[in-house]
User: Fold this.
Amino acid sequence: MIPLFFGDSKSPLFGMLHEPRAGQELGQGVLMCPPIGQEHVRSHWAFRQVAAALARAGYHVLRFEWYGVGDSAGTLDDASVERWVDDAKTAAQELKDAAGVRKVSMLGLRLGAPLAALAAPSVKPQALVLWDAVVDGGRYLAELRRLQAALIADERRFWFAWPSSVRSTVGRVRADVAQERHAASDELVGFHFRAELLDQIAAVGPDAYRGLKRSRVVVVDSPEAPGAAELVPPLEAAGLTVERIVTEASGRWADPRQVEELLLPADAVAAITRALSGQGST
Amino acid sequence: MMIEKAHRFGDDNCLFGIVTTPAEPKQGAPAVVVLNAGLVHRAGPFRMHVELARRLAGLGFLVMRMDQSALGDGAPRPGGLAYEDRAVIDARQAFDFLAERYGASRFHVMGLCAGAMNAHRVAVVDDRVVAASLLDGYAYRTTGFWGRRAVAAIGDPKAWRAGARKIERALGRSVTAATAEADSEHAHGETPGADAAEIFAQDWPPQAEVRVELDRILSRGTRMLFVYTGGWSDYIHEGQFDEMFPGLAGRDRVSLRFFPDADHTYLLLAHREAMLREVEAFARSLPQAE
Assistant:
């Protein structure tokens, strides 16, 4: 693994390059596009596992982080969907330059999927793997809002010595000593989202995937989160051949009890490696 | 301009860290090393460690947020060492690296949860640690803890129901064996840390032993910040610290803060901001090297 800071030196992006062993190179790259926010934190380990497996299979792999995400510069306060799409283009070029490859495929998880798809007309990936893809940005944000509400109401997370009935009574009399669990309206699962960014994410829809006409498309999802399967009909209607893989790896993204559990990639590692090699799908 | 650099270091380059170099370094200030919070990679829960590193660098501190061996982008460390022993070696090799590459000689080590226990462990054995910030570290259930908890339970119908369920389980069936088996399946293979179960199954040292260690750390001149949250179920009242470690909170090298409203990993931004300000104030208060 080779860590890289790349792009604009004033606001660099972070990436980790996984190289294949000498003599085993396929001469192809894979750009891994992560989720944002806490979903990114949860998926770091899974991304590392997938990247390592792809490198063992002969690919040059760059898993990078969007502006305002992970070790890249900035915060979500300065991020925008447009900027993230540019980040994917910059990262694809970095992968080509660093690894000396011309052919690149892309893999996007959750919001990383539509962002990768939006960059695809420029990057021209050979294949695009859409893993637990966000298809409707508005619904994705609604899911985050429900998650936020459930987390704030969770007595185990916000355990406090007073029972809730006592707390609410004390809160009426002495608000300064009652437990406070207030979140700003633009705060979602541990991160602040500007109104403009929320609007941009809400505007992400199935149209984001329109530019994939020249790529192989592989949709990966799990029985517990089959939402991305709804992506298949519109893509097929647009004339694309779509392969679908159902894995056991489930982030249970909407489950408040899972919000700090790492995504374990389970069989997704082998399934994604096979899919990118053009072997095996359902 | 604040600059961040990525480094692999340690035995066989098994460790990984991002070093944030301040634009205007504070002369004589200790370098900060942020340890992993449980299994979470160096960014920390809700990217907290990135925010922390950049804010402390903004105050002039050199900061490394690191991945210990077998966590995040760290590689497994050979030798079959226990998690606790590995964690101490990992942190000390981070100190060695920062000394060699950045000229640091004094360190402020910090961590949340398992990271706090590890910060404590390395502070015990390494004289280069001049400050330690422990977020939801060791907590022991004191008589006061049980008393307050009982009072809370009496007034809470939810607690009655939970108690009834416990009794029912105790009388009826045992679920622990099945749970332990399921947990052990997750302890291998693709689970980060390769020994994740070990991290959460750590036996805390006896309270008296921790007290002796704290006295040893403090007698050396090391400053300590203890931050606890209401989300840390073993700690429920500010006075509990004095019950656990009598006389310690009053010492001038010890800072203590309890955020009863906050959860264990600071989900809410207002709670996180309060914690970050506490850590910043503590870091600013540290004496500079001559």
User: Anything to note?
Assistant: Residues 86 and 241 of chain B are 28 Å apart (CA to CA).
